[in-house]
């Protein structure tokens, strides 16, 4: 009799669990909005749109992309913050969101108000010089900078107080040198300045950097990575920062997050769909084309959160050194 009662009780508990689980997975009921905190046509915009198309197949509802690119990603973050914590708004993120917080440019604190879903990819950054430069190696460049502290080398990038600014000055700090960071409005302007002799040093992500190496216009000096890029023939002999004793490997990355307070079961549904999209042949072809598969970029939510905190601290340290952050 006791066994019968216990069995009935167990069945009842299991039924409650099944019903609860059924309620948990009743998401999404309507389209999800993917907020892209950048303008249309750029690399981050294209990535988010393509990834959304892959992901929606595993959710059963469309993912609508919307560009909110004003104020250096602040508009996109603010828009996502003002939506409900219900999983129906997903925000694409890059290091820019952490930099915004580090520089105190927005009253909305990114890490306190958003939770990661996953990081998808990580770009590799490279440093080089024009083909007619006197520097044949990164060591020569460092030695010159140390021996001539008054003759500041110039390195360019996009926007002051942005990721390029951080990478340039973070690398300089890790190398024990200093140089002058010169901001430009576009990548094409940076390239023209390097090739025209206006800048001494060129930095860029792999996809944009490689064609100038293959054309012979740029001499690569170092890869910001923990290993050489053996899988890229034109760069296989270029040393990486770690082998030179420089512990700096920062590049860009892309991932997704939701507003803090989103129910865990809803976050898991989103994570599962994003994960399945990551494993598709369509995404593998996409990252191969964009050369974002050269170094591992994938990170689960917990690891991604640790990356947020680590990089945020690095941004604060370097921007204080350069005087950008008081």
Q: Write the H/E string, N to C.
A: HEHEHEHHEEHEHEHEHEEHHEH
Q: Helix share of residues?
A: 40-55%
Distance between the termini: 75 Å
- The CATH class assignment of the largest domain is Alpha Beta
Structural domain tally = 2
Q: Main sheet: which strands, in order across? A: 2-1-3-10-4-11
CATH topology name of the largest domain: D-Maltodextrin-Binding Protein, domain 2
Q: List unreliable stretches of 5+ residues.
A: 4-22
Average pLDDT confidence is 92
The CATH homologous superfamily name of the largest domain equals Bordetella uptake gene, domain 1
The number of E-state strands comes to 11
Radius of gyration: 23 Å
